[in-house]
Amino acid sequence: MKRENYRDMTIDELELKLHQYKEELLNLRFQKVAGSLLNPSRINQVKKEVARIKTIINESDLGLTKLSEGK
Question: Is 69 inside any structural domain?
Fold first, then answer.
């Protein structure tokens, strides 16, 4: 997903998406340890998505970006 799409989301939606990505990352790490991971590059993709979302949330907290509170 692109940054512009994340910026159109509310804080609650971003936090939900962040939670989903963190769960996926945990599952991918378990699959890696078990040796059943089919797409190892997906771990890096999910880590980058988590970082993007955290950056946007942090920018909002600092007042650098204006996110909507609700729809």
Answer: no
Domain housing 16: 3-62
Return d(Cα 69, Cα 15) in angstroms, integer: 12
Single pTM value for the model:
0.85
56/63 Cα distance (integer angstroms): 10
Closest by CA position to 32, among listed 48, 19, 14, 44? 44
CA distances from 17 to 12, 22, 34 (A): 9, 9, 26
Where residue 21 sits, what CATH number does that domain have? 1.10.287.310
pLDDT tens column, 37-65: 999 999 999 999 999 999 999 999 898 87
